[in-house]
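Quick one, T. Sequence first:
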Amino acid sequence: MEDSTLGPRPETAAGKTWGNWPRLKKFINGQIWALVLIGVLIILMVIGTMAENYNGSEFAYRLIYGRWYFLGAFALLFVYLIFSFISNFPLQRSLSAIYVIKLGLILLGIGCGMTYWMGLTGRITLSPSMPKNDLMLPEDLVTINYAGQEKTDQTNSISFKLPSVALPTSLDYSFRDLVLTSFLPFSERVLSWNYPTGPNPGIFPSSQYHIQNAGSGPELDLNVVFTLHPEVQEFSSEMKLENISFHYLPEEVAPCFERLGVSKIILWDIQSKVCFTPEEQKIPILISAAGKRFLAVKRDHEFSSFFPDFSVYPFTQDLNLITNSPLRVMALQSLESGHHLFLMGPALGFFQGDHWVRESLEQGHPHRIDEMMLDLTLLHHTVEKIPMRLPKFSYRGHEQAVAVTFQGHSYWVTNQQPLQLEVNKLTATIQIAPKTLPLPFMMSFFQTDKGEYYIRFTQHGQSEDHRLLPHSPVKFQGIEFYLEKEKPSATELPLAASADPGRILKYLGIILTLVGVLLQMLIPGSPKTKEA
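Structure tokens:
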């Protein structure tokens, strides 16, 4: 009888361990795991292909190919193939086709890993006159810089890496008084009406119009935004088409179009929101020594001097403009020869025949102007809010945007437009830009008389010229450069750059895999894959 206190015999334990090897080998060779991983990869690649066709390669990379789930499934399949290959030792001649397939897939996986970890992709835009060596990598940074700090101060600038995602995501970055709250990897500008953050709200008007031609001339169909608010830089108060000039004025100016005097001069006060003419106020119009019309308006015991034919703002005694004055002036006499349309919120004015007329606009209803063959519709008018084109997530958008919060207000910075804020008497500049990698050589390009493009590589004082063809890369020091556009301009040459150290292994892996598949199909009596 065996003494249970002595425990199992060593040889019995060893025999049990070695006895589990066939079961482990069967588990490793089970096709179910490979089929699951291959199925996951196929589904992800189908989604990635659809995303690339619909939204471009960058969106597909951010959504599928650069994400952990795709890379993880690929890595698990690679590990499975290695253990499956090892478990087949000692090798059998009848399974040679399967060994070749697995070896090819293993080499393909190694090559893809080398490309991912050691490869290089980026973009560079060359110019003929200024050599460059800064390669823009597919990694985006948002940088905050405070101007006015000492050079020795290491906290005046900081950069954050933006996540490589395809959908909007929250951020939790902060630096001093600025907080980065969200990131839009793909966005487009959408018109939005928001309350101003600066002084004097409710004084400066803004309006949106739809302009369409009513005749048989060139097709015209525009949505136009005008504003007089000083905070808005994207929209203006003037627009000129082929034969019509548009001028945007406050609503309070409209009544004076019906009360014009002989001078055909209108004055208005943007604070009290009233307009008047020199004839109504009995303001004399003088002629200066240079023969120019001149008038002085008295308000609150102070005089404002105007040259109405030159500027809407008053002048100081030194002939400097007073742009913060509430008074404005406009001379219409010189505008009667061409087509000038004055838009004033829900009103408009223009010269008809031999006099100026004023007409009203009803919001949302087209208004025909026969004199200019236009249909004009007032879409929006406000003095409380200002127009802004704010980023909004869009699958087809081309801008990256980050929301910045400062003192309770939200701002947007994009890779097309940096943001500047005044923070504690310092200027904080926030910008989005790709991470750059300096190349060990300089690059420029030139175009021959035959229209051929050549890239010039300069290193250590020596230059090499390589012709660039539309569908053939230029290779220099292991990096290949491709044309991003088939027809580049004469001033800019956008290039895509890549270095793939795993390319040979990937090609060899693909060839071995195909050879193994052919052997599997052609060799009589070859066992099925599941018997491996």
